[in-house]
Beta-galactosidase (Algibacter lectus), 308 residues
Amino acid sequence: MQGTPQWYDWSTFNNARVLEWFTWMKSEIRKYDPKAKAQLKIMPSFFTDNDPASTGIDLEALTELSEINGNDIAAHYNYTRKGKMGWEDKYAFGWRELFLGYDFLKSVKPNQINFNSESHLLSTSHTRDLHMNPKYVRAVYWAATTLGMNASQTWYWPRKADGSLKENFKDNAYGGSNNQQPRVTNELHSTLMDLNSYSEEITAMQHQRKPIRIFYSKTSAHNKGAYMDDLFKLYESLHFEGIPLGFATKNIIHKQEASNWDVILVQKTKQVTLREFEELQSYLDNGGIVIMDNESLKLMNTEWDCQI
């Protein structure tokens, strides 16, 4: 059904409905604590994988609603389910969600801290290895922190302050986790000590200007299941050049200074709303640079605008 008008209407309605609910919840909190900072533990995989389930989770809109960039970004040491995730033949670990997720969050709200309140960098429901190489721990936490992670609560630690196990520890997250990996836990502790010792340098890296921006369209994402696969290929092709990468959306272009970047890349983004097109055109008219392939911005519909 994806790609049909009915799917687009449902997906955008669901996004608006979820955003309205969280906006109401924040307003209720502010009644009792006007200075409270809102943070949502959002699963960025809904964005990075372009989750087809129409979750209602609009990563950009919910991040704009927050004062802290909440997330539970994951990386993948292995894959315990059938088949492959696609990275295994090329890389030591799966980094798509980690890198795309933090670069997107830092593009939407660059000056807010990123709090990974359920860090799945070590394990998830489908990523776990009792004999994990401790070098992976160091690599993935350095990557996450230099990308923008400011604080984290590592999954999974089901122990009380006195060291005893919590009553509800008997779930599928315990076996093969860092609770049974002394080398992994020790390496994590050592890595965090090292990260803290270089905090000023890391903070400077986190706030580097992102001169190259990849255009992200919610419209194309709703309509095309493989949209984020295409965007990741572009991101991947540029990533190892050593230049900080970011994202541009219609909101980012409209709300932020164009001096924050040098160029916007538009690739395989066929369907956009008129407002998305107009923001790109306005940026271009004011001296900006847009590099585009020959298949993007082909379909525009003013009716889509009322939905997003």
